[in-house]
Design a protein that fits this description.
CATH topology: Rossmann fold
Oligomer: single chain
Number of helices: 8
Distance between the termini: 35 Å
CATH superfamily: Vaccinia Virus protein VP39
Largest sheet: 7 strands, mixed
Number of domains: 1
CATH class: Alpha Beta
Radius of gyration: 17 Å
Shape: globular
Helix content: 40-55%
Length: about 220
């Protein structure tokens, strides 16, 4: 099945609210656990960059699990970030997590959008939203510190729409219709593992490994040289 792109940004208030109020505790906590096991030599402190943070749940979970780290969390959707700010206030983590509206590919930086050498860059479910996948890998190369760590998790495109519908029924049947629709469309917009490996090769990121970890997810992880 050929990839069917979907919109890059979740800009509508209804969509942002549905995502912010959904219970992603299990998959988002799993993201943190797999990151920790994949990057076992991660230092105790540093500054991490979360690309495509959405409503900031994973940024918050990472901050809670790694109190020695600061997190810069970027997303292009103002609607999603509004819910992210609310979540930060509830958790009282404004001192540790900074949310910024940044649309990738990132523009010229101002003093409000620092360009740093981040020792860790992570991203969840951003790649399948991008019309050009090179945008993510280029940004990672631009922002990563020498010997920086990278962890990316995203959806895996199924073989056909029948399989996509079956996955949607299996994992999203109890979710609101808007989330069921978006999950189905996101599966169609996702990349397959051979495509991701080719993207890494083209971006000269051969230090990173790509691996399928479930019937609907893959990870890319490693330490840059």
């Amino acid at each position: 099945m050929r990839r069917i792109p979907e919109p890059e940004l979740m800009e509508s208030e209804v969509q942002a609210q549905a995502y912010a109020q959904a219970d992603f505790a299990e998959p988002h906590q799993r993201f943190i656990e797999i990151l920790q096991s994949s990057l076992a030599t991660l230092p105790q402190e540093g500054i991490a960059l979360d690309l495509g943070c959405g409503a900031a749940d994973i940024s918050i979970r990472f901050a809670e699990a790694h109190p020695g780290w600061q997190v810069e969390a970027w997303d292009g959707s103002a609607a999603m970030l509004r819910y992210g700010h609310q979540a930060l206030e509830q958790k009282k983590l404004q001192h540790q997590v900074t949310l910024r509206q940044v649309y990738l590919p990132s523009p010229d930086y101002s003093s409000e959008i620092p360009q740093l050498n981040y020792p860790l860059i992570f991203s969840n479910s951003l790649l399948h939203h991008l019309a050009d996948p090179a945008v993510l890998w280029t940004e990672i190369k631009k922002q990563a510190a020498p010997q920086g760590f990278v962890f990316v998790m995203d959806l895996l495109r199924p073989e056909d729409q029948v399989q996509a519908a079956a996955l949607t029924d299996r994992y999203a049947s109890e979710e609101p219709s808007i989330l069921q629709r978006d999950f189905f469309n996101s599966l169609l917009a996702a990349y397959q593992i051979d495509e991701v490996q080719a993207q890494l090769q083209a971006a000269q990121l051969s230090d990173l490994a790509a691996q399928i970890i479930s019937d609907r997810h893959f990870i890319v992880w490693g330490q840059l040289r």
